[in-house]
Amino acid sequence: MILNLGVIGTGAIGREHIRRCSHVLRHAKVVALNDINRSQCEQVNRELDLQATIYDNPDDLIASPSVQAVMVTSWGPTHEAFVLAAVNAGKAVFCEKPLAVTAQGCMNIIEAEMAAGKRLVQVGFMRPYDSGYRALKQVLEQGEIGQPLMLHCAHRNPSVGEAYTTDMAITDTLIHELDVLRWLLNDDYVSAQVVYPRKTSRASSHLNDPQIVLLETAQGVRIDVEIFVNCQYGYDIQCEVVGESGIARLPEPMSVQTRRAATLASGILTDWKQRFIAAYDVELQDFITGALAGQISGPSAWDGYAAAVAADACLAAQNSGDIVAISMPARPAFYA
Ligand code: NAI
Ligand code: ISE
């Protein structure tokens, strides 16, 4: 069986996902493309040897009988409308983060999906598919370090472009931690605060960088996440869990260690695409398999909503400097 996919958005991650669906993963074929920049679709079609139909209108792509499932990899603010259209057409849809740019937007999708009567949406939160995070979660669930008490995390990028603004540290970058830490601890957030250390001279005038986000969970776990998007030296994701009887750390990506010239060294990645390359493969294979079986089970619209609720609170905390309460409604049985 082959899942015929229509992709909206052929930018950086769109191309990566199209490449993996067409040339790496099993049981999928990209048959349709759309982007506001048509020439980009033509280039992707040619370079990845797809022979996909290019649609100038995304609604026509979603409605096309030759498209069984939709992949949304366009800019964040466009996601909600495309996901709603796919759900209303009864089609499975993989949507890159964020599911929608506001919690209310995510709730609109939840309501549409519940009305459709079955799960159709998978959000592109790939970290729960990463082997390192999975190993860390196993250590916690087996009680090897006792109850988790504190987490120290970091999300560092070497640099970001001029268009990156202070709020994007939350909506574009921290959003991955907001999802994966909730999954790791099996817990929800109850408050957030954002504090600003001394600003790096490498950040643009409109960006506060670095930032430290302090989160508290319902079970009382305290989390600090350093977001530092002009750290210069590499793309570095850190997560240390302090438990009652020990400490567990997210494994470093594999890198050969060298001893030479009086120096012990190992490389650090610089590109996010490489850091989670295997996790992207596994998440998309899961989506393809789930869509073909009519049983989507990856990160849900509810997970997208929970991250958005926490992100909204972090944005309010960025602006006020206050500790902002986070309140999640009860999870509907539909997403149990
Ligand atoms: P990008 O800017 O490289 O590509 C976005 C594409 O969407 C562009 O080609 C643009 O022309 C197209 N587009 C914008 N509006 C559109 C519309 N109305 N209709 C059709 N196409 C439209 O951005 P990038 O980095 O590929 O990011 C795309 C999404 O993926 C974002 O939501 C981003 O947060 C997410 N992302 C997720 C990552 C992950 O690790 N899970 C990594 C990088 C991005
Ligand atoms: C990017 O948008 C992503 O989603 C990457 O996974 C993330 O680590 C990076 O910081 C973001 O800019």
UniProtKB/TrEMBL annotation:
Pfam families membership: GFO_IDH_MocA (PF01408), GFO_IDH_MocA_C (PF02894)
Q: Which reaction does it catalyse?
A: myo-inositol + NAD(+) = scyllo-inosose + NADH + H(+)
* InterPro entries cross-referenced by the UniProt entry: Gfo-Idh-MocA_inositol_DH, Gfo/Idh/MocA-like_OxRdtase_C, Gfo/Idh/MocA-like_OxRdtase_N, MI/DCI_dehydrogenase, NAD(P)-bd_dom_sf
Specify the domain of life of the species encoding this protein: Bacteria
List, alphabetically, the Gene3D superfamilies matched.
Answer: Dihydrodipicolinate Reductase, domain 2, NAD(P)-binding Rossmann-like Domain
UniProt keyword NAD, yes or no: yes
Q: Tell me which residues make up the Gfo/Idh/MocA-like oxidoreductase C-terminal domain.
A: 137-325
Q: Which residues form the Gfo/Idh/MocA-like oxidoreductase N-terminal domain?
A: 4-125
Record keywords, A-Z: NAD, Oxidoreductase
Please state the Enzyme Commission number of this protein.
1.1.1.18
Per its database record, what is this protein's job?
Involved in the oxidation of myo-inositol (MI) to 2-keto-myo-inositol (2KMI or 2-inosose).
Q: Which family does it belong to?
A: Belongs to the Gfo/Idh/MocA family.
* Complexes and interactors: Homotetramer.
Give the protein name, as stated in the record: Inositol 2-dehydrogenase
